[in-house]
Amino acid sequence: PPIGGMSAYIFGDPATLSDKSVPLACRVHDECNGSDVFGSDICTCRPYLTHGIEICVEMAQQGGNGLVVYNRKEGRALGEDNAAKYFERTECVAGVQDARFQELMPDIFHWLGVKRLDRFASMSDMKHDALAGQGIEIGERIDLPDELIPEDAQVEMEAKKAAGYFTQADIKDA
């Protein structure tokens, strides 16, 4: 998949990111131009990014740290041309294979010395498993609250849950 780099946004004291006694909240976000830039409500990307930032800011305000890793790779690694086609047919969300590659994603955590995430704002098992597989402890996992899911993104969210994404909510029958 095309990967164009990443940005790390740190809330709190960067010098204590590697200190396991200082609580750390985190959102790992894969770029989504449709939602993040153009405000589309057909997916949950922008609301999850915003919610992740809020969680990170709250942790910093409580004396801990927050970390948002923003990966420059479009959505499900479909590329911008194919992403437009993908969003034209929301009823096919459950049938689209997620092509994002997360195995290298934990590198930035190692570079920053992060060994533990106390609060992890992600429903993605691929992100969770990549981090855990490289020895990064994960405490609480946080899914996107129902009230933040745009009406037009309900199909996507239910497809994610049915496909096995982490959630504390009930999974609706098909």
What does this structure look like?
- Helix content is 32%, strand content 18%.
- It is built from six helices and five strands, in the order ββααβααβαβα.
- The protein has a five-stranded mixed β-sheet with strand order 1-3-2-4-5, with helices on both faces.
- It is globular and about 40 Å long.
- The two termini are 31 Å apart.
- 33% of the residues are buried.
Keywords:
alpha/beta; five-stranded mixed β-sheet; 32% helix; 174 residues; 6 helices
Q: Runs with pLDDT <50, length 5+?
A: 77-91
Give me the Rg, rounded: 16 Å
The strand order across the widest sheet is 1-3-2-4-5
Tertiary shape: globular
What is the number of beta strands?
5
Strand content: 15-25%
Strand and helix map with partners:
Blueprint: E1 6-11, E2 24-30, H1 33-37, H2 45-61, E3 65-71, H3 79-88, H4 107-112, E4 116-121, H5 125-133, E5 137-142, H6 154-162
Parallel strand pairs: 2-3, 2-4, 4-5
Antiparallel strand pairs: 1-3
Short summary of the structure?
The chain is α/β, with parallel strands linked by helices and 174 residues long. 32% of the residues lie in helices and 18% in strands. The two termini are 31 Å apart.
